[in-house]
Amino acid sequence: MRWAPILAVISLGGCAPAQPGLDELPARSLDGCHLRDLHAKPGVDVAIAIDTSGSTAAPSGADIDGNGTVGEFRGGVMTDRADSLLAAQVAGIKSMVAGGDLHDLRITLISYSGDDRFDDPATAKRFPDAILRGALTSDPRDLKAALERVLKGGSRGTSSFSAAMRRSLEALDVGWSRAPSDGRRRVVLLLADSPDPILPAPTQYFYRSRDGIPHGSYVRTDPRMATVAERAIRSGVVVNTFGLGPAAAEDPPHALSRVAGATGGRYRAVKDPTELHCLLMSALAQ
To answer: What number is the average pLDDT over the span 14-35?
Structure first.
């Protein structure tokens, strides 16, 4: 994880531009994905966990909204808010939903970050680490509404993978010890811009200095992930992971690759964020 841009994003706080609307993000065609099967296998329930940590406000390095310019930080301000890592994730899912066959595919959307205690330093208000944005559905209108809620929620906090996995399993109605008996496959697609979970050290006190930059300690291991991964394995849930931004530049092994391998899934480095929809559909078409 590259800390300089992360701290810059966090320190901006309420000064950052508002999030783009879903209509500003184009739906890219699946025709250019070079997939043998453009449609997901039938009878699949999918939980997509979207990383909304503070660092996802950073530039994705790609022209996500297709306006001919690539957003970047200039003077601490994002020049094109619709080219952020958060926008890249939402645009990829929007394209997958628009171009895929949802006949027997149900999708639930979760956004996740982590409590870093920077969200409201005046009141130390805590925010949930993972939020259900939309229940299982095959209705594109419901999915678009859920994606709008993710965008409006913005980027804040750190990266809690265990919270994302736990809430995904809950949304898929998965028990602790055995797979559901309805015959449907259950898959988690976990998106992240960090190769490992990054959480505040629980014994440290976090504060803002006079320069506006938050200070504190972070940990990159989360023992809760093993517990949630074991639950997924026992219930037959496959977790596929996707690394964007800094995570795409990190070579495995790391947490994203380990959790995917342990559950029978695959880690995919998203080198080009504009091709995320292709990688998502590839995971579902396996």
So the answer is: 76
**What is the domain partition of the chain in residue ranges?**
24-285
- In angstroms, the Cα distances linking 234 to 12, 261, 263 are 43, 14, 9
116 vs 53: CA distance, rounded Å: 10
CB contact at 8 A, 209 and 215:
yes
Please identify which residue in the block is written with the tokens 């149900």: 106
Q: Where are the alpha helices (DSSP H) in 80-178?
A: 85-99, 140-153, 161-171
* pTM listed for this prediction: 0.85
Fold for the domain defined by 24-285:
Rossmann fold (3.40.50)
d(CA 136, CA 109): 8
Look at residues 124, 187, 128 and name the one whose alpha carbon lies nearest to residue 160.
128
Calculate the dihedral angle through the C-alpha atoms of 190, 191, 194, 195, rounding to the nearest 10 degrees: 50
**d(C-alpha 113, C-alpha 116), whole Å:** 9
Least confident range from 25-29, 146-150, 174-178: namely 174-178
Q: Per residue in 127-137, pLDDT tens?
A: 578 999 999 99
The percent of residues in the chain predicted with pLDDT above 90, rounded, is 53
